[in-house]
Sequence to fold (158 residues):
Amino acid sequence: MSYWFFLNFILLILAIYKVVTHFSFPELHVHIILGFIGFMFFLFNWTRNAVFSTIRNIPDRRKKIMLATMSKKVMPFHRWTGMLALLFIFMHAWVIIYRYGFSVQNEKMLSGLLAMITLMLLVATGWMRLIKPTGRLRRLHLRLGMLLFLLLVLHIIL
Ligand code: HEM
Ligand code: HEM
Fold:
């Protein structure tokens, strides 16, 4: 199994911890719910990376085929879950800016803005990759996913 499963799991626990310890819990402000839903859609798509690296690393051929078949079944949803992540994050940012305004001095907002820009590029390279697949786009799509993962670690911890 890929260590990415473990890293994704840690980030999920961290996000859940932040949500349940938010001062508005259990009613929860709508921007927190929107951010968490967007995050879950991202994590669903990002798990594809963990599955792909497991396929590359395990020696058992039967397991490889099983994982590849499962991954293929999920693929038609991938583009739409990616679009939903973007939609929920737009709403998350919109409600936050409406409520609190925007300041780059605020680390949470700055890391969030960088994460949102990365997500927009990730979705754009996803569609470009679907229309015209090239090796360069594949690497770019994957690296943007990794960058977004790192930015979200910051965004959630800060
Ligand atoms: C991919 C983009 C983003 C994701 C996945 C995301 C996710 C989240 C999640 C899950 C939370 C709740 C947990 C926590 O407090 O850490 C949160 C909180 C927050 N986010 Fe984001 N976010 C994103 C983009 C943004 C953007 C663009 C902004 C700035 C406009 C922003 C500003 C904030 C702020 C200020 C909070 C704390 C709100 C509070 O404590 O009341 N986020 N975000
Ligand atoms: C939250 C947003 C997204 C994330 C985290 C994400 C992540 C990933 C990952 C990890 C892979 C496998 C990487 C590899 O090739 O090794 C992948 C593949 C792919 N993604 Fe995305 N993606 C997102 C959004 C999108 C969107 C909106 C599209 C639009 C069509 C898209 C199109 C594709 C395509 C065509 C593949 C290749 C599938 C295959 O070869 O089976 N992605 N994505």
Helices lie at 3-20, 30-57, 61-100, 107-131, 135-157. Residues 15, 18-19, 22, 29, 32, 35-36, 38-39, 42, 89, 92-93, 96-97, 102, 108-109, 112-113, 115-116, 119, 152, 155-156 surround protoporphyrin IX containing FE (ligand 1) (CB under 6 Å).
